[in-house]
# Entry
Amino acid sequence: MLSANLQHSNIVRHNSSDDHRKAVEADCLRRSLLLKDDSACTNEASSASGESGDIPEPKPVKPSDGVLFNTVLFAAKQVLPNDIVNSLLDLQRHNGAQCRHQDLHSDTVLGIQQSLVAVIDDLLDAELQACAVFSMLCDESTDLSVNKNLIVYVRFTRDGVAQTKLLANVKITDGTAGGITRTLLEVLKQRKLSVTKLVGLGSDGASVMTGRMTGVGVQLAQHAPHVVLIHCMAHRLALVCVDAVKENPYLEEYSSKLGQLYAYFSCSSHRRDNLVRIQEAMNDDKVKLKEPIAVRWLAMYNAVVAVSKTWASLVAVFANDAKAKILGAFITTYTFVAFTALLCDVLEVITDLSKKFQTEAMDVSAVNVHVNIAMAAIQGMNVEPGTCLSTFYETLQLTADVDADGTEATSAWYRGVQLQYSDASEADFLLLRDSYLESVIEGLDERLCSDSTAVLDAFSLLEPQMARSLPDDEVSKLFDLLESHFKAKNASASDDEYSFVNVPALRREFVRLRPLFSGCYSGLRFEGLARMLLLRHRDDFPEACKLAEIGLTMPVSTASCERGFSLQNRIKVKSRTRLLPENLEMLMKLAVAPDLEQFPINRAVAHWYNARRRRLGRLYQPSQRRSAVPLQGQNSTFAIRAFEETEEELVGIDDCYCGDTDDFEFD
# Structure
């Protein structure tokens, strides 16, 4: 260890000594030698791959190389750490697989992963370059190391089918609208994608994204004038539920009690075991209580269903615990039990709608259809109770009792438990039910129907079941929306110039296309019709095909970003907090890579071999710790003599300086 009281004169004297000067000279010569060889190797790889820099035509893969690359890809897709690769190779060798590689250094595994990701990026870039338009989905998150990351997905069409794939997950230091916009533009520039092809931007609706003055959408519109900013429908639906709770004081208390129920059992294994024993004795479902987290889309529904299924067991637990009398008294009220049944019915409809929004196949024209179906189902609960509430009424037993003073009273029994009931209980519940259902319906209409981008309604022109019944004046209004949106907005454009879609030509095509909506394509929805147009009628209806491709590209929700956050948190755990941002992004891309049967391993192997010269013999030998040879006095002479040595002796010099690293490898 260096002494803490080194004097400046001693350091100057050491730097002026012959030994230090020769050591520095030897190190510089060694580095120049290695860089010279790497440069020659890179030039050979570039000439082999052609002037374009693309991956050369893949050659047949050796069985051992195929096993190695498949193993690395499998470990990444299963979110396993890199140091498990050697164990997986040993297991395959033990099972008789042809696998010569062993004791691979972490840098070697990293290099293979980089080659795999290079192939993934090349395939995605080729698909995006072939598309006329694309959309982006982005969101922010903070990982375990408290790094703010921006995850970016891209949505495009291939063979008439919409696809959403991970484009980047980059660390950002500036979380403002300007910083996010610059990051998105930089990502597009690195992937050589034209921002003018951007037609949609999906976000979670945060003010930094949707701000009307300086939001990300407004700033991107300066580069892509026809971009449509879309607030995630799943996030909107979650806000509908949150707003309905805030408008009713009883609902706020109800949500608070659900949280207390979860905390009561989650903080004590003894209480949890006691609940399980009572569930077994009462033949109740062994259900764990769920936490009603507002930011999770399906958490409230899962929490309510869990309480409904194990309600009788909960009552039995609280009856024997004097510390939980308040909770026990609250869950045995008539209003609580009846409202829990109502919530099971309503939230089931909301949850099904949310799941539909989260599917990749959901398109913009189907949003209003599914919302209207959900609103009709909820409105019907005012007239006829849902399944759970009907079951509650069928199980409820009301009996007339006479008190000791001769007063008549009604008692309510549900699943063998007497509820806190009065003559006004049912009327109070009905008022609460009507208020809650009205709030949910108004929220669905305001946030999902009325609060939508106007131009998205125009895609209903390619919805056969809707377009054939639209009156001519409505059709004209929809075309006017398209015309105002796609008219060229640059100063030099003429009045009849359009971007992406020539709306006047589309009007003429629609006259010939509309009869098909009542004929062979009458049973199709927007997605099916768009695919038929793109696959079969590009020459017949070119402008309609462009509109169909844009409609398929528009993002309905940012569920892909949320799944990306979950993947990020599964990869970057406490034992891997030192993962670099670029390595985290690489592992995320590998985790969502195509299956082993579909992945072009031969291209990844070719990329890995052509990236640099490889000392393959090292990969087939057991790891042996090599200590560095101390260089004393003869550093300069030793390094200069290396230029005259054979290749085998040169490799020996490399081993002495590099130890176990595989950064510099030779054939």
Q: What stands out?
A: Residues 37-56, 626-667 have pLDDT under 50 and may be disordered. Residues 454-553 form one domain. Residues 18-49 form the longest helix (32 residues). The longest strand covers residues 148-158.
